Amino acid sequence: MIRMQSPEYRSTIAAIATAPGTGAVSLLRISGPDAIEIADLATGGKASSVIPRTSRYCKIYDADHQIIDDGLMTVFRAPNSFTGENSIEFTGHGGMLVTREVLGRFLACGAIAAGPGEFTQRAFLNGKLDLTQAEGVMDLISAQTRLSLRAARSQLEGTLGKRTTEARDQLLETLAHLEAWIDFPEEDIDPQTGIHLRGKIDEVLSVVDSLLATADQGRVLREGVRTVIFGEPNVGKSSLLNRLLGFERAIVSDVAGTTRDTIEEIINLHGLPLRLVDTAGVREAGDQIEAEGIQRTVRQIEAADLLLEIADGSKPKPAEAVLPHTAAKHLRVLNKTDLGEHPSWTGFDAVRLSCETGSGFDALSEAIRDALHFSEADWGEHAIAINARHQASLIAARTSLLAALDLLKNPSNDTELAAIDLREALDALGEIPGKVDTEDLLGVIFSRFCIGK
Q: How remote is the C-alpha of 40 from its chain's centroid?
């Protein structure tokens, strides 16, 4: 189990919780056993008299009792706070210097600077959040689209942790039944024990499979759909990128081979993040630099989720492009329809548009959505989207569950081996919400957080 650290033996931390830069207001946080005493030293004794979970106007004083800033202070007494510890939040003026001075005063009064994600890590260690909810905090902060926000909100509410915990509890009951059968073979526990146990394991396996099915959705929501724009030189790849972005990101020129390297930007399309990649035109390279650009295009195609192959519809249809092996969805786009369509394209299945006039882009948007099958309706009632860590744990659990099932199919097999497999599946499922020893994971997970969260 997690090794809990009692709050009275833990230091008190402080950090600026708002983003760097100048703004109207800034927020600073203090958390730990001495949070209220530290705030008292900085405010002239105001913090200890504040009614918990209410805000009070106060001033922050330096060591010489000179005013640094004034604002609102909110006090949260343990365990009724985000971290489960005594906590203080001070909202003051948003200047960079004044905010740093207030933080410096808190540190001078006894706090230490918080590390990335340390407030959320303490919430996890104090049982205020499970590990999936802690990860959901970062996903919520990082969300770029409506669907990714919805998935993060679901995870923060504990949907994923609840499902894995329920599956683990059911498996724990099954393991107890199996071990009783092993330890007391003379007891007539259940004449249909083998069938009953396999049925219970199958139910857990079904939950694991349903969660694993959301891995691609989770990757797409967090990283974006890797959408590679490719084609021959001077067909409008950079113009297509600029039109989709809504601003001039790539250089557009009539000179073929202008784009020598890949360019990446992210857009929001129907609630999905699309990571657009503009590539060098594919042709016989004119020099070593262009050759390297073309090689990079090939590598991007191999790693793509979606390919947008663009061609000049006003010119004769070229020979079919020979693509590297890829499982990506493939959409063909005919550009320059404002110049008229060459007869060789008649009946060719493609989205027809003009980067010059903007016509056809609604049709392209719909075609991309349909090709990906990632509309909001595809998510069902709950937007659960597992990440790579969850996926690895679920795959390990699935492997162990299948091994246990295989052993239990034959009564002559050693059931103790099946029990070992079920224990391994229990541990793997427990890693997801953090119900087993996850100390090695914490540094990796919380290091991705921003300071002050």
A: 38
Place of tokens 């594919």: 282
In order of 31, 122, 230, 272, 371, the CA distances from 309 in angstroms are 53, 49, 5, 20, 14
Would you say 368 and 274 are in contact if contact means Cβ atoms under 8 Å apart? Answer: yes
Can you list the pairs that 163-169 forms with residues at least 24 positions away whose Cβ atoms lie under 8 Å? 163/207, 163/211, 163/384, 164/132, 164/207, 164/211, 164/429, 164/432, 164/433, 165/130, 165/433, 165/435, 166/207, 167/204, 167/207, 167/208, 167/429, 168/426, 168/429, 168/430, 168/435
Structural domains of the chain, ranges and CATH numbers in brackets: 7-128 (3.30.1360.120), 137-214+385-434 (1.20.120.430), 221-378 (3.40.50.300)
Instruction: Say whether pLDDT at 261 is over 60.
Output: no
Lowest mean pLDDT among 267-271, 322-326, 425-429: 322-326
Residue 358 DSSP code? -
Res. 179: pLDDT tops 90: no
CA distance 41 to 105: 9
C-beta separation of 47 from 75 below 8 A: yes
pLDDT at 376: 52
CB 149 within 8 A of CB 411: no
Contact 32, 12 (CB under 8 A): yes
pLDDT for 2 beyond 70:
no
Q: Which of 101, 49, 44 is nearest to 75 (CA)?
A: 49
The pLDDT value recorded for residue 281 is 54
Sheet with 306-312, side-by-side order of all strands: 263-269, 272-278, 225-230, 306-312, 329-335, 351-352
How far is it, in rounded angstroms, from Cα 149 to Cα 262? 28
Spatial contact of 280 and 260, defined as CB atoms under 8 Å apart: yes
Asked if 71 and 57 touch (Cβ cutoff 8 Å), the reply is yes
**Predicted local confidence at residue 283, as pLDDT:** 44
What b/e readout covers 260-284, taking b as 16+ CB neighbours within 10 angstroms?
Answer: eebbebbbebbbbbbbbbbbbbbee
CA 320, 321, 325, 326 torsion-angle sign: negative
What gap in Å lies between CA 315 and CA 270, rounded to an integer? 32
Structure tokens at 16: 């600026």
CA distances, 286 to each of 91, 132, 259 (Å) = 60, 51, 13
Residue 75's DSSP bridge partners are 88
Question: Quick check: 273 and 224 in contact, CB under 8 A?
Answer: yes
Q: Percent of the chain at pLDDT above 70?
A: 84
Dist. CA 166–CA 203, nearest whole Å: 11
